[in-house]
Write a structure and sequence with these properties.
It contains seven helices and eight strands, in the order H-E-H-E-H-E-E-H-E-H-E-E-E-H-H. It is of the alpha/beta class and about 210 residues long. An eight-stranded mixed β-sheet has the order 3-4-2-1-5-6-8-7, with helices on both faces. The longest helix is centred in the first third of the chain and has 17 residues. It starts with 8 loop residues before the first helix and ends in an 11-residue tail after the last helix.
């Protein structure tokens, strides 16, 4: 309970996720962020408050409605660009088919709590797009489904550790194919993280 009402764990997790995005983008000017599966849009809200204004959400149509409702009420509808609109809003909310047809590129892609809950072929299709269109992939997912996120990026340079906010969840920062080919535009925090993690991988709680 806070002076502004009850704060749920989801809000705290979203703030942490936005903070991680801010750390990864570092000194990148006007970073572009992609989030696949944004739920209500809380992470996008906190990222916007932290100065990340170019943000794209990809989700199922009904969930897009929920995100649009939350972000429209908290940030204002003028900051949103919904499917089929030509507005200048800095937060775009689109369904999967629009994302797969687009060739827009991003600095960081984020997925929390959903990639391993999809059919594997769907998850692989998303990762292929992330691999080609983003420099960095940040994943926070549990590992109790039929496959793990790390099964999608075998052999890639990455940082991996137990998520401090969620027991049993692995937090992974992956250098994508695009990031490897063009190692520019990345924040100093990300470059330092890769140097620190080179040659070793932190074990998650699920591996202990």
């Amino acid at each position: 309970d806070t002076g502004r009402g009850i704060q749920t764990y989801r809000a705290t997790q979203a703030l942490y996720q936005a903070w991680q995005l801010k750390k990864i983008t570092g000194d990148t000017v006007a970073p572009k962020v992609l989030e696949i599966g944004a739920g209500s849009g809380r992470t996008a809200y906190y990222a916007w408050r932290l100065g990340i204004r170019d943000y794209t959400i990809v989700d199922l149509p009904l969930t897009c409605v929920a995100s649009a409702n939350f972000l429209g009420r908290t940030l204002g509808p003028e900051h949103l660009k919904l499917y089929g609109e030509d507005g200048a809003g800095s937060i775009s909310i689109v369904p999967p088919e629009t994302f797969f047809k687009s060739r827009e590129r991003f600095d960081v892609a984020l997925n929390v709590d959903s990639l391993t809950e999809m059919a594997r072929e769907t998850a692989e299709a998303y990762f292929d797009e992330i691999d080609e269109r983003s420099y960095v992939f940040l994943s926070i997912n549990h590992e109790w489904n039929l496959f793990r996120v790390r099964d999608l990026f075998t052999g890639r340079r990455h940082a991996r550790h137990a998520c401090m906010m969620r027991a049993g969840y692995a937090e992974e920062v992956v250098e994508t194919l695009r990031g490897r080919a063009r190692y520019t535009g990345l924040g100093g925090a990300w470059r330092g993280l890769l140097r620190a993690m080179r040659g070793r991988t932190a074990r998650t709680r699920t591996e202990r």
